[in-house]
What does this fold into?
Amino acid sequence: MKNQIKDLRAARGWSQAELAAQLSVSRQTVIAIENGRYDPSLPLAFAIARLFGMAIEAIFEG
Amino acid sequence: MIGSEGCVTNGTRYIKELSASLLLYAGVLAASIWLLNGHWLAATWRPAIALAPMLPIAGCCWVILRQFRRMDEMQVRMQLEGLGFSFVGTAMLTLGYGLLEGVGYPRLTMFWVWPLMAVLWVVGGFMARRRYQ
It folds into this structure.
C-alpha cells in the first residue's frame, strides 16, 4: 500500500527512529511501512493519522 | 531467533535474560550428568535429577514468550511466518524420515526434533525479514 509517511516525516524533520518511538514500534517497522512492504493494522494506521493530524485516507492510498 | 531492531533496550534485555537462562541450563545439565554418572544416587532420585535441566529450559521459554509480548505487530507477524515455516518444515522432515525408518533407515532419537525446528525457525525468520525489508 502506498503512503505519504516518508514525506510527512521528512517535513517534520523526524528521523525514522523518532517516528518509531512516537508510535511505539521498531524502526524496522517504520521502514517497512514507508517502503510499502508492510501494511499497518487499523489501530496503527489510526495512530499514524493521529500523529500527523490527518485522515487515514489522506496518508494511505489503496 | 527473535529480533527487536529499533527496540534496543528490549532487545538487549532479551539477549541478557536468554543468555542467563542458557548458562544456567548448561550448569544444571553438567551437574545433572555428574550426579547421574556417580552411581551413588538412589534410583528414586534419578528421574528427578535427569529432568532438572528442564527447569532453566522453562525459564528460557518464559523469556522467549515475554519477548513475543514486547514485539510490535510487524515483528510478531515475521515471527509467525518463521514459526509457520518451521512447523510445516519439521512436519515434512520428521514424517518423511519416519517413513524411511520403516524401510530400514536408522532410528533417530527425539532429541533431533527441536534442533531441526530451531534451525527452520531461524531460516523462516530470515526469509520473513527479507520480505519486509
Observations:
- Confidence is low (pLDDT under 50) at residues 3-7 of chain B.
- The interface with chain A takes residues 4-7, 71-75, 77, 131-133 of chain B (CB under 8 Å).
- The first helix of chain B runs from residue 8 to 38.
- Chain B has five helices and no strands.
